[in-house]
C-alpha cells in the first residue's frame, strides 16, 4: 500500500479549504468523477500537465492583455478582444484568456529537422517553439502605420516549390507590406528566414518589431540588445535575429513604458533594454523612400554547430517516389500537395499531430498519420516512425503514450499490419515479441464476461479519445482492440501458426462480445445505430463508433449499425456541411467529417462528396486545418492551428477516391467527383501502395462518352480482382 494512504491528507485538505471559505475539493472531485464510469485512470497525467501549462499562459494573458489594448497584439487578440468583431468573446467570468476564435497558424521547416517555426494569418512569425515573435510594420513619415494584425483583410498563401513558404500581403492607404517566411539550409544548418518587402507612396520606415507574444499569448522577453553593427538582436543573452542591413533607428520599451509602437517617432535611440516582468518590445527601423520598394531579410538560426548537417535538397529527397495527384480541381490538388508537406514536416522521427500545441506524441494520431505516409508511398519515413514505438511499450505489453487510453495497442498492431501488407514484407524478427506482448495485453485488459451489464467482456472504462466524452466503456477502444488481435493473427500467420490462430480466435470472441453489447443498445435505443458506449444515448460521441467501418473495416460496407450511426450524425451533428463535435472540441472537425465521408464512400453513397468539398472549403488559405473550427469565424477554436491528423485524412481521402482495398479486390475510381469527368484533361494518381502491391491509375475523360480507365501495377503476387466504379456523369 502506498505510504500516502497512511496519511490523513484528505482530512487536512478538507480542513484547510473550509477554514479559508473554499469548497471542499475532495467532495468536488468526487462529484466530478460521478459523471463518468469508474476507471483506474481519471485523466491522463500528461494531458493534465499540458492543460495546466496551457491555462497558466491564459492566466498571464488575462493579467496583461486586457489592461493594455493599446499595444499591438497578435491577430487573434486584435479580433477576439474587439467588441465589433464576430470573433469577440466576453471575458467577465473567464479566469484565463486563451485563443478560442482564430487558432490558425502554418508550420514551416525542413525535412527531419525538429524545429518548426509557425506563421499566423497576418504573417507574425514565431521562429522558436512557444517563443517570442517577429512582426513587420510600415510607418509613414506622416504618422500613418500599417499594422497587419489590425488589418481587416489580407492575402496569405503557401508556396510549396522547394519547401513550404508562407507569403502574407497587407495594404492600407497607399502602404503595402509583403512577407515571405520559410526555413532554408545555410552551411548545413536550418535557418528561419523572413524576407519583407515594403512600398509606400510617401517616404517612411519599415519596422521590424520584436514581440513578447505568439499565437497562444504572452511569451516573455527580459532583455534585448542591438549589436554594435546595428544588424542583429541578441535576445535574453542567447537567441539571435540577424538583419540584412544595419538599422537606421532603434527603439526599446518595457512594460511600464508601454508598447514600443508608441515610441517609434521618439528622437532618442536606444540600443538595449530590459524589463523585470518580461515584456520587452523592440523596433528596428529601415528607411523606405517614396514610390520605391525596400527589401529586408531576417535570419534566425534554428540549430547550433553541434547539430547534424542537413541536406540542401531535403525536400526533393523526402518526397521522392510519393503518390502524385494530377486533377483538374486546383483546390484539391493544392490541399493534397500541402498535406504531403505537412506529413513530411511533422515526422522527423516520431510523428507529431501539430507543430505547436500538439508537438508531442500520441499513438492514436500516429497511427493515422503513418497510414497516410504509407498510402502516399513515403514508406521509409513511415517505417522510421514505427521503429520509435517499441521503446514506449511497457513490460506488460501496453503501448503507452498517455495512461488510460486503451485504444493504443490496437492502433499499433493495426498500423504494423498495414505496413507489412502495403510493403509485402514479413514481420521483422525484432517486432515479434512486441506484437505478441501487445496482443496479449489486449486479451488481458478485457473485463470479465461474468460481470453484470452490457460492458461485460469489453475493455475497461477509460479516457480514450478526449472528444468522445468522460471516462466510459468506449466501443472505439473495443473496435481497435479487435482490429489489433486480427492484425496479430495476420502478422503471425506465416511465422507461428498456433499463436496466430490463438489471436484470431480471440478477435472473433471479442467481436461476438461487442455484438452482444451493441444488441442491448439497439433494444434500448430502438434503432441499430451505435452509441459511444453501452450506457450512452446517441450523441456526437458516436463518431468514435464509426471506427468499425473506417479505417478498420471490421464490418461490411452496408452494415446497418454502421450506416444508421452515420445517418444519425448527418442528421443531428452537422453544421455548415461538416461534423460539429459539441463535446470538448465545440467546433467543426475536418478529420472527423472525413471519417463519415469514408464510411459513405465505402457504402457507395454519393453524399460523401458533399462532405469532402465542405472540408476543402474549411481549409485555410495556406492549405491547413485547425483541429476544430469556429462555426462563425471559421478560424480555429481548439487544438493545434495546423492539425496534421487532418492533413493525413485528406491524403487518405484522396487516395481512397482513386484506389482502395475491399476484401480480396481493388476498387478504382469510386470517389472521383463527376465534375472532373466533364473536361478532357487526364486524371492520375500513383504509384499508390495497396495490400496487393502498388498501382498507378489514369482516368481519361471523354465528354459525351464513357471515360477510359487504365492502371499499371507492381503486384506483390498475381494481379488482384479489380473493379472500376466511376460515378455516373450528366448526359
Biggest sheet strand line-up? 6-7-8-9-19-15-14-13-17
Described by the principal axes of the CA atoms, the overall outline is: globular
Q: Which architecture of the domain at 106-301 does the CATH hierarchy give at level 2?
A: Distorted Sandwich
Count the DSSP helices: 16
Which fold name fills CATH's third level, the topology of the domain at 106-301? Beta-galactosidase, Chain A, domain 5
Q: Which structural category fits the helices and strands?
A: alpha+beta
Largest sheet: 9 strands, antiparallel
Our estimate of the beta-strand percent is: 15-25%
| Unreliable stretches covering 5 or more consecutive residues | 1-7
**Fraction of residues in helix:** 25-40%
Mean pLDDT: 93
* Terminal residue distance: 76 Å
Computed CA radius of gyration, to the nearest angstrom = 27 Å
Number of strands: 31
CATH level 1 name of the domain at 106-301: Mainly Beta
InterPro entries: 6-hairpin_glycosidase_sf, 6hp_glycosidase-like_sf
List keywords for this structure.
731 residues; 9-stranded antiparallel beta sheet; 16 helices; Beta-galactosidase, Chain A, domain 5; alpha+beta; 6hp_glycosidase-like_sf
Amino acid at each position: 500500500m502506498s505510504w500516502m494512504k497512511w496519511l490523513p491528507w484528505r482530512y487536512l485538505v478538507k480542513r484547510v479549504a473550509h477554514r479559508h471559505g473554499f469548497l471542499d475539493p475532495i467532495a468536488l472531485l468526487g462529484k466530478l468523477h460521478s459523471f463518468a464510469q469508474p476507471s483506474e485512470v481519471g485523466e491522463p497525467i500528461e494531458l493534465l500537465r499540458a492543460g495546466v501549462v496551457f491555462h497558466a499562459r491564459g492566466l498571464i494573458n488575462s493579467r496583461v492583455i486586457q489592461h493594455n489594448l493599446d499595444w499591438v497584439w497578435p491577430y487573434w487578440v486584435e479580433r477576439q478582444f474587439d467588441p465589433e468583431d464576430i470573433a469577440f468573446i466576453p471575458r467577465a467570468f473567464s479566469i484565463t484568456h486563451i485563443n478560442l476564435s482564430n487558432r490558425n497558424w502554418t508550420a514551416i521547416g525542413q525535412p527531419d529537422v525538429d524545429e518548426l517555426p509557425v506563421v499566423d494569418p497576418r504573417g507574425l512569425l514565431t521562429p522558436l517553439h512557444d517563443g517570442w515573435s517577429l512582426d513587420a510594420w510600415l510607418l509613414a513619415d506622416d504618422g500613418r502605420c500599417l499594422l497587419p494584425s489590425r488589418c481587416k483583410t489580407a492575402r496569405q498563401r503557401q508556396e510549396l516549390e522547394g519547401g513550404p513558404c508562407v507569403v502574407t500581403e497587407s495594404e492600407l492607404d497607399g502602404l503595402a507590406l509583403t512577407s515571405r517566411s520559410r526555413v532554408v539550409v545555410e552551411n548545413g544548418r536550418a535557418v528561419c528566414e523572413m524576407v519583407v518587402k515594403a512600398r509606400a507612396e510617401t517616404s517612411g520606415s519599415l519596422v521590424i518589431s520584436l514581440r513578447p507574444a505568439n499565437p497562444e499569448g504572452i511569451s516573455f522577453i527580459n532583455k534585448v540588445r542591438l549589436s554594435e553593427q546595428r544588424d542583429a538582436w541578441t535576445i535574453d543573452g542567447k537567441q539571435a535575429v540577424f538583419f540584412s542591413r544595419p538599422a537606421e533607428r532603434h527603439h526599446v520599451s518595457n512594460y511600464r513604458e508601454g508598447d514600443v509602437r508608441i515610441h517609434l517617432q521618439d528622437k532618442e535611440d536606444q540600443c538595449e533594454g530590459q524589463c523585470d516582468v518580461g515584456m520587452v518590445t523592440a523596433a528596428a527601423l529601415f528607411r523606405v523612400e517614396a514610390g520605391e520598394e525596400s527589401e529586408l531579410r531576417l535570419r534566425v538560426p534554428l540549430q547550433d554547430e553541434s547539430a547534424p548537417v542537413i541536406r540542401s535538397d531535403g525536400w526533393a529527397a523526402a518526397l521522392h517516389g510519393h503518390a502524385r495527384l494530377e486533377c483538374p480541381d486546383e483546390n484539391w490538388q493544392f490541399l493534397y500537395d500541402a498535406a504531403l508537406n505537412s506529413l513530411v514536416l511533422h515526422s522527423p522521427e516520431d510523428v507529431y499531430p501539430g507543430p505547436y500545441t500538439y508537438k508531442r506524441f500520441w499513438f492514436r494520431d500516429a497511427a493515422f498519420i503513418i497510414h497516410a505516409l504509407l498510402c502516399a508511398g513515403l514508406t521509409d519515413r513511415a517505417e522510421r516512425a514505427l521503429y520509435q514505438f517499441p521503446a514506449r511499450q511497457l513490460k506488460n505489453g501496453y503501448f503507452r503514450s498517455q495512461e488510460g487510453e486503451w485504444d493504443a495497442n490496437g492502433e499499433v498492431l493495426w498500423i504494423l499490419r498495414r505496413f507489412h501488407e502495403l510493403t509485402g514484407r514479413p514481420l521483422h524478427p525484432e517486432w515479434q515479441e512486441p506484437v505478441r506482448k501487445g496482443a496479449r495485453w489486449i486479451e488481458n485488459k478485457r473485463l470479465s464476461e461474468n460481470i453484470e451489464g452490457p460492458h461485460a467482456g469489453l475493455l475497461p472504462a477509460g479516457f480514450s479519445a478526449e472528444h468522445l466524452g468522460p471516462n466510459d466503456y468506449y466501443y472505439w477502444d473495443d473496435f481497435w482492440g479487435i482490429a489489433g488481435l486480427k492484425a496479430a493473427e495476420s502478422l503471425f500467420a506465416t511465422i507461428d501458426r498456433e499463436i496466430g490462430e490463438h489471436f484470431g480466435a480471440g478477435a472473433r470472441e471479442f467481436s461476438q462480445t461487442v455484438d452482444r453489447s451493441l444488441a442491448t443498445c439497439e433494444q434500448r435505443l430502438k434503432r441499430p445505430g451505435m452509441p459511444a458506449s453501452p450506457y450512452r444515448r446517441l450523441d456526437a460521441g458516436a463518431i468514435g463508433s464509426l471506427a468499425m467501418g473506417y479505417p478498420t473495416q471490421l464490418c461490411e460496407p452496408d452494415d446497418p449499425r454502421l450506416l444508421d450511426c452515420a445517418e444519425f450524425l448527418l442528421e443531428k451533428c452537422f453544421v455548415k456541411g461538416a461534423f460539429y463535435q459539441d463535446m470538448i472540441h465545440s467546433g467543426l472537425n475536418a478529420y472527423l467529417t472525413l471519417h463519415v465521408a469514408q464510411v459513405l464512400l465505402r457504402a457507395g453513397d454519393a453524399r460523401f462528396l458533399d462532405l469532402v468539398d465542405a472540408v476543402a472549403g474549411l481549409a485555410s488559405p495556406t492549405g491547413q486545418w485547425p483541429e476544430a473550427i469556429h462555426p462563425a469565424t471559421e478560424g480555429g477554436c481548439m487544438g493545434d492551428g495546423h492539425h496534421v491528423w487532418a492533413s493525413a485524412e485528406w491524403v487518405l481521402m484522396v487516395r481512397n477516391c482513386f484506389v482502395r482495398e475491399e476484401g480480396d479486390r481493388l476498387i478504382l475510381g469510386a470517389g472521383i467527383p463527376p465534375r472532373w469527368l466533364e473536361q478532357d484533361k487526364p486524371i492520375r494518381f500513383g504509384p499508390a501502395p495497396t495490400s496487393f502491391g502498388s498501382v498507378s491509375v489514369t482516368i481519361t475523360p471523354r465528354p459525351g462518352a464513357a471515360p477510359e480507365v487504365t492502371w499499371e501495377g507492381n503486384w506483390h503476387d498475381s494481379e488482384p480482382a479489380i473493379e472500376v466504379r466511376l460515378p455516373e456523369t450528366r448526359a
